Amino acid sequence: MAHQNRGSQSFLRNIAKDKTANTIAISAASLVPLMAMVGGGVDASRYYMADARMQAACDAGALAARRSMDDDDFSSEHRQIGENFFDQNYADGIFGTEDLSRSYTSTSDGEVNGTATGTLPTSIMGAFGYEEFDLDVTCTADINISNTDIMFVLDVTGSMNRRPDGTSCSGGCGSSSRLQGLRDAVLTFYDTVDTATSSGAQVRYGVVPYAANVNVGKAIMRQNASFMATEADYQSREPDITFGPWEPTGYLYERTGDGDNYNYNRQINNQTYHGSFDACVAHYNAYQISDIFVSSSESGWTQVSASGGNPRTVEYNGSVTYEERRGAGGTYYGGSGLCDVDFDIYRYQADSTITVTEEREEIFTWNYTQVTHSLTDLYTGFNASSTNALSLNVDLPLGSNGSDRSISWTGCVEESATQNVAGFDPVPNDAFDLDINLTPSNNQERWKPVLPGAVFLREDSSGNFTRNDILSNDNFDRIQDTGDWTCPAEAITLDDVSRGDLSAYLNALRGNGFTYHDIGMIWGARLLSPNGIYSASNTTAPNGDSISRHIVFMTDGTLDVEPDWYTPYGVEWWDRRVTDDTDMNFNEVENMQWSRHSERFQAACRAARQENISVWVVAFGTSLTQNLIDCATPGRAFSASDSAELDEQFRNIAQQIAALRLTQ
Length: 664
Known about the structure:
The chain has 14 helices and 25 strands. It is an alpha+beta fold. It is rod-shaped, with a radius of gyration of 48 Å.
């Protein structure tokens, strides 16, 4: 044991004297600050994660609460929505958080403010006297819109007069119609954007009502009247007049040469009741006349001139036999009112001018065919400053027997030249109608007025539409009279529109006609584009900031076309500007129209999106077809089964356009 004690003492003594043994003491002493450093990093990391997560949850709640508000009024329901979103993103007890609290309030101008607090117990730093961290975040959300151009492209076809479920009403559906639902939804949209508009920002609205046509004539003329064609081809009619032979109605002979070949003819005794001797003498003197026509041979005449229409005057040179009456023995008054007068008759030939008036029968017929009409006089009465609906007139030879008839133009236009091909991706260079940035410089590119009073349907002897020219005395139906066309209300170009003016405009809209989506989208994009004929007013805003551009396209039906309707592409059965110019029956033309107008619609939608225009599509009371989905900017196609849902969809679109954002 002693040995052992002496050994143990010796071991400890040796350790105490051994300098290398200091490492153990140093290591032990280092454990304390090392634990503090690592523990601090772990707890700090937990704090930063908890704080960031709490901030994100606060932001989410504020955004959700603000989006749920229709206006600036904040209710307990909106507060609950904010709190629910917070709770979904920051569950009670996450990261070990204690005493969690969150609250949302709103300012008078609709700004939502949120706060969230809590404590986060430490995991390691508690050993050093740091037992918890305080968590405290704030957030603010508002809807705020900057420079924005919004173009409503609205279906105003006949089906818009029905209820949202598609049923019709006797005498009209009035306040329960799709059209009324649309009016209300547009105003809801307006109100939503208006409450979110930044001070100093420019927000402009435009509207393109469309059916089988669009009414943009005044918008074009105000921009530049030279964009409208001064002549155009129409499926019309022109006078076709044939004439019978010329028939003389009068002759006038005027001697120009000396008479020759005098020939005594006979003596005549003229007894006439005159009543007095002086009257008898006057009669005798008056009866002595030269150059009385007797005869002439027309075969020997030489024509000199002809003038006039029908009737006309023709002059000839020729030899004429004349008669001269000379007194032969004086005058005798036999009393009782009787005159005895003797005359000698002489005949002679002389060179003369023969003037003949002639008429011929006119046989009038109409030739029903494509006719080029001059339109120069149509635009002379245009008043760019007028606020009235466009109403211009031109006289064309379409009245009775080719007389002038006044033809009116109310603003709808025929499109510029296009290509009747099957594919439009890419769009052919000379399909000018699909160029939303077109600036016309020639007649192919210019727009033409829709003139239903100048367009005629034509039928064969069996009553079937025919593409052949027809020569007829019959007056075939005018488009003006058949009702196979419709011209909606004038489009509104982009402007700072008041709510009252917009409401009055919407109330004046009426539903009529078929559904041509492509022409609505073409002109919606054309009026909105920063690079077309409206570039001067569309490129920049007064404050110099960028402009956000949106088309809100609403329809209550699928594409609906008719070969015998007058549209921006003429009357398709005859013009074939969209379909092939081949021998097809009526139904075949209609089927080809449908597919090609669908393709044109997609081409117009692509053209809009390529100009960085957001395209929003809403199908109202109808299915959201793939054709409509493909038109919209991805994720921006919606449907609404009734007016309340339409109102909600328009509010939803307006809120997204209005740029809901965090302001802190």
